Amino acid sequence: MGILTYTGRKSGKKISLPLAFSRKGDHLKVGVAVPDRKNWWKNFITDAGRVDVDLGGNHYTGLATSTRDDRGRVFVDIALDS
Predict the structure, then answer these.
(1) How many CB atoms lie within 10 A of CB 72?
(2) 3-state secondary structure 45-81
(3) Structural domain for 48, as ranges
(4) How many whole angstroms from its chain centre is CA 66?
């Protein structure tokens, strides 16, 4: 579990969410449960967006992108900055 913080594409406000991440190297992945009932991931669907991640007491920054697969599942990939 960690905290994802991003700036809302419409509101311009900072928003923080607790999320479960999986990590592989310098990438984090989030599977969005029931994506049609949630909007936060849409901030990253057309354009990648800058995010902050607090994970296990460590702070990271990165670039998030959302994708929806042919089965309707949504994933957010976060490429962490070096």
Answers:
(1) 8
(2) CCCCEEEEEEECCEEEEEEEEEEECCCCCEEEEEEEC
(3) 2-80
(4) 7
Structure tokens at 82: 């070096």
User: Residue 25 and residue 14: Cα distance in Å, rounded?
Assistant: 27
Alpha carbon 71 to chain centroid distance? 20
Q: Which of left, alpha, beta for 41 (phi over 0: left; psi -120 to 50: alpha)?
A: alpha
Could you tell me the CATH number of the domain that includes residue 13?
Answer: 2.30.110.10
pLDDT confidence band for 33 (50 / 70 / 90) = very high
Q: Is 0.90 surpassed by the pTM of this model?
A: yes
Number of domains in the chain: 1
Burial class (CB in 10 A: 0-12, 13-18, 19+), 5: middle
